[in-house]
Amino acid sequence: MGRRLLLVEDDERSRRLLVDVLGYYGFEVVSVGSGEEAIEVARRSLPDAALLDIQLPGISGFEVLAALRSMQGTDRLPILAVTASVMHEERARILEAGFDAYVPKPVNIRELTELLQRLLPESGPHDRG
């Protein structure tokens, strides 16, 4: 089975598209539309990586990042910021906050899957054999 990803995206169309495409590439994707849901799902499902939209309803992607970094089991999780903001200052702020990578919107799927392959180990706690 593929690596388990947590996708946090409030735009339903974007979320469905990413779930379908990442599933095609062999990832198991759990998707949610808010930061609050993301924290609860991450606590329960312990994903192998997370893709966080920065601008979410309720709590922001930065707040979700802080929560995931503070929880045992998700504290070392590769976490990617997915955002439409392309300003240099925002990108620097994202990386300084502790995100492992920055993925601009619209998402280039080939680049995203290559990045995930680099960030995720070949085997891990969620491999089922």
Automatic annotation (TrEMBL):
The lineage of its organism: Bacteria, Pseudomonadati, Pseudomonadota, Betaproteobacteria, Nitrosomonadales. It comes from the Bacteria. Keywords: Phosphoprotein. One of its GO terms (biological process) is phosphorelay signal transduction system. It comes from Usitatibacter rugosus. Residues 4-120 form the Response regulatory domain. The modification 4-aspartylphosphate is found at D53. The keyword Iron-sulfur does not apply. This is Polar-differentiation response regulator DivK.
